[in-house]
Amino acid sequence: MKAFFHLLLAAAFWFATHNGLASGLMRARLVAGLGANGFRIFYSILSVVALVLLARASGAAETLPLWAAPSWLRLILALIMLPAFLFFAGGLLRNPTAVGGEGLAGQQARGIQRITRHPMLWSFALWALVHVLGNGDLASVIFFGTFAISAFIGMPSIDRKLAARDPAAAAKLCAETSILPFGAILAGRNRLVLAEIGWLAPALGLIGWAVTLHFHARFFGVPALLPF
Fold first, then answer.
1. Please, are residues 105 and 96 in contact by the beta-carbon 8 Å criterion?
2. Interacting residues of 26 by C-beta distance below 8 A, sequence separation 6+
3. CA 111/CA 119 separation, integer angstroms
4. Taking a C-beta distance cutoff of 8 angstroms, is the pair 105, 169 a contact?
5. Alpha helices, DSSP H, located in the chain
6. What does the pLDDT read at residue 24?
């Protein structure tokens, strides 16, 4: 159980870094002392350290099975990973809620932002939840669950930071978009324009999904799909 205690400590350090340090009074003090770029460098280094500690602790933890995912569930989970890759690729190209993209917040929502203003965090959330359900062991629940919870907490946290930085731009972005995918579209506050998304992001997402699915066993030692 000592290994699981280390894993919980690593998870707590990740939360402290991403959902504590990245917002609130501590962040403001660090930005004031280090400058915006200095804070980003410091935050990036801490993030890498937190990720390494979390990965090492997860790898050292004993496997305690909680459930076994059947073949049909793993197939569904593999399909859910496709929108995760699409959100990730779309979030790379134009994302007002990503680091460095804050200047886009006051502009009209376009492309993937019409679907959700947090495509990158939804990508991580879906990836994490898929692996929690697919692996079904305690270490995976803690490891991947940490990323899922962090992503879901991060969405309103980023909204608050945008509102504090530029209230008018944040209000415009939130009025036109939604956290929940397709929420603003279903509510009539926006519409889906596939032409704005283009072909590059979907192509990158589809290729990334197919390559990862095919080479999952070679890359990570576990096949993504089990024989029926």
1. yes
2. 20
3. 11
4. yes
5. 2-15, 25-60, 71-93, 119-135, 138-165, 167-176, 183-186, 194-197, 200-220
6. 65
- CA separation for the pair 209, 77 (Å, rounded): 12
Whole-model pTM: value is 0.90
Mean pLDDT of all residues belonging to the chain: 87
Of 66, 188, 206, 185, the C-alpha closest to 136 is 66
Reduce the secondary structure of 119-142 to three states and give it as a string.
HHHHHHHHHHHHHHHHHCEHHHHH
CB 91 within 8 A of CB 98: yes
Q: Which two tokens stand for residue 187?
A: 């509510």
Angle separating helix axes 25-60 and 138-165, nearest 10 degrees = 160
Query: How far from the centroid of its chain's Cα atoms is residue 134's Cα?
Result: 18
Measured distance CA(128)–CA(131) in Å, rounded: 5
Whether the CB-CB separation of 18 and 50 falls below 8 Å is answered with yes
Top pLDDT among 93 and 143 is at 143
Q: Identify whether the C-beta of residue 114 lies closer than 8 Å to the C-beta of residue 192.
A: yes
Neighbours of 195 (CB within 10 A): 7
What is the pLDDT, as a whole number, of residue 127?
A: 97
As a whole-number percent, the residues of the chain with pLDDT over 70 amount to 91
In this predicted model, what pLDDT tens digit does every residue of 107-155 receive, in sequence order?
A: 777 889 999 999 999 999 999 999 999 999 999 999 999 999 999 999 9
Question: Residue 100's pLDDT band (boundaries 50, 70, 90)?
Answer: low
Could you tell me how far CA 181 lies from the centroid of its own chain? 14
Residue 188 carries which side chain, given as an amino acid letter? Answer: G
